[in-house]
Specification:
Two copies of one chain form a homodimer. By secondary structure, chain A is α/β, with parallel strands linked by helices. Chain A has two domains: 17-197, Carbamate kinase; 201-276, no CATH class. In chain A, 36% of the residues lie in helices and 23% in strands. The first copy, chain A, has nine helices and 14 strands. In chain A, the strands form four sheets. In chain A, strands 5-8-2-1-11-13-14-12 form an eight-stranded mixed beta sheet, with helices on both faces. The longest helix of chain A has 25 residues, at 81-105. Chain A is globular. The interface between A and B is large, with 41 and 41 residues.
Chain lengths: 276, 276
């Protein structure tokens, strides 16, 4: 039984349900018109889906208004206790609940979550030999059974970039990491497409030309382009994460502009990262 | 078949699963030690349960720090657009997520919700012939099927006093009302005990003596004590709501101190309101 290419037969591997996990960054959240356009596309995306949002500049504005000084070490924001209060307010309160209400208005039955909710993402406070990052979380585990339960109730999940340590502490957690960990955790039960949206159209052959998008990249080509310094700087950790996600069971990873979501998911825009 | 009083037989009416719905007010939320003690008791409460929390003074402090003036009309806070942003931050962000994380630390698998999440509580913006209350919601419906689904996944629900109108607007909504509407909506499937905690030990025969708690009150006694002005002022709407809840299918309503939660649920403290 089984075997590839049989007309009319059952596929050799059981076809899993499709799940799209889409991460949007601050550049979309800070722009009301862009966000509305993105939510239109997201709500219209068929099948099971998860949105992971970053924070945007509102947290910085609220912190400034409350007189809380932002600490930076090596260009990284330190999450002291006061900053944690602000990001919890803004990310889990303002941003998350407004996205949920706006998806509901578009007929998309969304539920907003942090990692504390339903113990969905357990993390630990980051330890570093030299730098105290404060209340920053590195993810330990995702409760795939619970999240599958919510998806089975036909809910769309909207994650704020906040996790918890199981000891009563909330933790500020990188939204890219949350998207990747959700994709890994759910990749066993679903056929996961993971979309990282950012400010460019995809992986560019010429960093100054937004039309030079590489439509597809595999590990060999990545190594080659990295050696030739066509791919450099901030794109390297993004692609390393993408290949790591593919190795852990995610079907495909796409990098591109949030404004082009339907085209990204159709493979007609952005860069699709493949493991072959 | 069936019939009451048969030894060893099936009960005539199917016994529903117990559900405790407990509303805590700002006096608990504002006091860290009181809140921790309450969460100990709440986490230890057996069976299915829902916590509904109010706001507390943090919203007022944050609004002041952000330079947002509170508008009061007839002693009622008006929720203008800026105030809605603050209550969304504080109630759905800070207060809700800290309660959830602290329940998780106590082994209670909680999930925080507003009415927008999963479209669980749909409301409409209050209309009033004389006063514009702003972004204040009056509840239209509760999605009992979804909430039952979450309870069946063994989650404890923690509601912030925020609903939505299905048109993309969040609405500031009275926490007592949310507790009552949840109790009504879930009263068809569960044997619901609804606990309103407040700053007194229960319904008092002498308003100045906290030891004069009436342990049980029915409709006839209520009318009698109201006529004699033993029950007056703020207690009247509380009891009217309690009797309304009983008429709509809630099994029992208890009023008392949050600090005495186990005794309240055991009928050994507070006032139990009954419909007979």
């Amino acid at each position: 039984m089984g075997g590839a290419g049989r007309a009319g037969g059952y596929p050799a591997k059981q076809i899993s349900m499709q799940l799209s996990i889409i991460k949007i960054g601050g550049n979309i959240i800070d722009d009301e018109a862009k966000l509305a356009g993105f939510l239109d596309s997201f709500a219209a995306t068929p099948g099971k889906k998860i949105l992971v949002h970053g924070g945007g500049k509102l947290a910085t504005r609220v912190a400034e208004a409350l007189g809380i000084k932002q600490q930076l070490v090596d260009g990284r924001r330190i999450t002291d206790a006061e900053t944690l209060k602000v990001v919890t307010m803004v990310y889990a309160g303002t941003v998350n609940k407004n996205i949920v209400a706006n998806l509901q208005a578009r007929g998309c039955d969304a539920i907003g979550l942090t990692g504390a909710d339903g113990n969905s993402i357990l993390a630990h406070k980051r330890t570093h030999p030299a730098i105290d990052y404060g209340w920053v979380g590195d993810v330990d585990s995702v409760d795939a059974a619970f999240l599958t339960g919510l998806l089975t109730l036909d809910k769309t999940l909207v994650f704020a970039p906040i996790t918890h340590d199981g000891q009563g502490h909330l933790l500020n957690t990188n939204a890219d990491t949350i998207a990747q960990e959700l994709a890994r955790g759910l990749g066993r039960s679903f056929d996961v497409s993971l979309v990282y949206s950012f400010e460019k159209s995809g992986v560019l052959m010429d960093a100054d030309d937004d039309n030079s998008v590489l439509s597809r990249i595999g590990p060999a080509e990545y190594q080659d382009l990295k050696a030739k310094q066509v791919i450099f700087a901030g794109m390297i950790p993004k692609l390393d994460n993408a290949f790591a996600a593919l190795r852990s069971g995610v079907r495909r990873v796409i990098i591109g502009r949030a404004e082009e979501l339907p085209l990204l998911l159709a493979g007609k825009a952005g860069t699709t990262i493949v493991n072959e």
